[in-house]
Automatic annotation (TrEMBL):
Protein's name according to its UniProt entry: HD-GYP domain-containing protein
Name of one Pfam family that matches: HD_5
Domain HD-GYP stretches: 243-428
Upper taxonomic lineage: Bacteria, Thermotogati, Thermotogota, Thermotogae, Petrotogales
InterPro entries: GAF (IPR003018), GAF-like_dom_sf (IPR029016), HD/PDEase_dom (IPR003607), HD_GYP_dom (IPR037522)
Recorded superkingdom: Bacteria
CDD domains per UniProt: HDc
Annotated source species: Tepiditoga spiralis
Signal peptide extent: none
Amino acid sequence: MISEIIDFIKTMNENNFCIEYKINKFNNSNKINCKKEEMIGYFEYENNNFISFYKIPKDYSQHILVLDELIKKHLNEALISNEDLNKLSEITNSISPKVNIEETVQLIMKKLCKILDFNGAFFLLKSKENYLSLKHFIGIKPTNKNVKISIDNSVSGLALKKKTIISLNNPKKHPLFAHGVLKNKINNIIYFPIFEENGDMYGVISIINKKSENISIKDMFLSIMLNEIIASIMEVSLRENKLKFMLLGTLKALLKAQNSRIKKSPEEHLRIKEYVLKMADKLNLNSSDKWILELSSYIYDIGMIGLPNALFTNSNKLSTEEYETVKKHVEFGYQLAEKMQSLPNKLKKIILYHHERWNGSGYPNGLKEDKIPLLAQIIGICDTYVAMTENRAYRKKYSKQDALKKLKENSGILFNPILVDTLSEVIS
C-alpha cells in the first residue's frame, strides 16, 4: 500500500502538482522543488504523518481525494462520505447574490462556518493602497480592527496572488503566517480568495478553528468546490453593486435638477432617506426593498421637473386649478421613470403611487389600503411628515410633536395605522 501511495504522489508531482509528504518512515522533502512560503495546504495524520501542498492544478483537484483515500486506508482512518459532498448543494441553495454586497459576504461567512464546522470567520477587503483591512468578522475577537495586512507578505495575500484556497493545520508552520488580526489562538484556517468580474483582487474570507478536529484533505477538496460556487455568487453580487452605485450617481444628478426647480433643501431629502431606511429596519424589510427605498428617496418627486415654473415662484397657497396641475407630477415622473430601463418596477410604482391615501382619497388612481404598494406608503408618510416640519412660503413649519399628532389623527384615514406607529417610533 505504501509503495502505491508514493508512486501516486510521484505521478502527481510529474503532472504539475507539488506535494511534500511524510508517511511512516518515508518522505520526499529533499526531492521536491517547492518554496515553503508558497504552501497552500498542510494536513496532519496520526503519528506525525503529514501531506503539504504547494501547487494543485485547478482541473485535477479531485486527485487530492484519491490520495487522501489511499493514505487513510493505509492508516485506517475514515473516508469521505456522500453527506460531505451533499454540503456543496447547501451553499448553492441557501445563498443567492444580494444587492447589498456586505450582506452577501457575511452570509457566505456564516454558511462556510456551518457547512465546514468552524468556529469563526473574518473578511479582509483589499484597499486602493494595496493592503488588506478587516471589514467583517463573526465568532472571533479582533486584536485591532484597523489592522493593515501586506498582500506581499501574508498568507491572505498569497491566496489572492495564487488565486487558490489555502488550507492550513498548525498555520505557524507557514513562513508567511502572522496573527495580525485576532486575539484567538488559531489552530487551523482556510483562506477563500475573492475576485471582481474583471479578475481584480477584492478580498479574502478566512474561516478559523474547526470545531471537532483538524482540517482534512476532504475539507480542502470541499473548500475548492465551495470556492468556485462562492466566486460565481460574488461575481454577480459585485456586478449588481457596481450598477447600484452607477444608478445612484444618475439619481443624485436628477435630484439636483429637481431641487433647483422646486427649491427643496438637500436636508429634506436626507431626512426622508433617514426615516424610510429606519422604518424599513423596524418593519424587517429585505435588503432589496431597502435599496429601492433608498433609490426612491432621491427621485420620488422627479415629475416636478415637468410642471410650469410659475407654480414654484408662487408664494401663496395653491388654487384648486394649480393643485390639480401639481397632482400631475406623479404621472410625469412615472413616464420619465419608464424610459429608464435600469430602474426597478417597484421604484417606478413608488413614483406613481406615493400620494395615494389609506381611505382612497389620494391620487392618481384613488387606491385604498393594501392596494397601495407598501414601499409607496412608506415614502408617502415620510414625505408628508418632513413637509409638515419644513417652512413653506404660505405657512410656518409644524413642531415635531404637532406633526406627529397630525399623523396620528389621520391614522386609519389617510395613513396605514402600522406605518403611523412605526414612524412615530423612529421620530421619537
